[in-house]
Write a structure and sequence with these properties.
Helix content is 27%, strand content 36%. By secondary structure, it is α+β, with helices and mostly antiparallel strands. The protein has one domain: RRM (RNA recognition motif) domain (Alpha-Beta Plaits, 2-Layer Sandwich). The strands form 2 sheets. Strands 1-2-6-3 form a 4-stranded antiparallel beta sheet. It has a two-stranded antiparallel sheet with strand order 4-5. The radius of gyration is 15 Å and the shape is globular. 16% of the residues are buried.
């Protein structure tokens, strides 16, 4: 698996923002086939930081309705990446 394909997008929620400020932990949506080692390599390569710990969670897609028709969103995986002590946090909105 290529390093560029592992990380899909950053997860910017209230919980992930507070974790980033408190424990230097960043959340990402990652490829469903990626494991902890793949995520660690991808974050270190793309953002030039040292990673201390990676936790992954498989999320189940929600069932959604459009009128009388029912569909299902796809399953996805998220990863919580704790950066090493002394590393500068990753900022996603630097230019804003």
């Amino acid at each position: 698996m290529r390093v560029q394909d592992v990380i899909r997008r950053p997860l910017i929620t209230e919980k992930s923002t507070s974790q980033r400020d408190d424990t230097n932990t960043v959340a990402f949506e990652v490829d469903r086939k990626a494991n902890k080692v793949d995520v660690k390599r991808a974050v270190e390569a793309q953002f030039k930081v040292k990673v201390a710990e990676v936790r992954v969670a498989s999320m189940h897609g929600k069932v959604r309705r459009q009128g009388r028709f029912e569909g299902r969103r796809p399953d996805w995986k998220k990863a919580y990446v704790r950066l090493a002590e002394g590393e500068k946090t990753i900022e996603f909105f630097e230019g804003v």
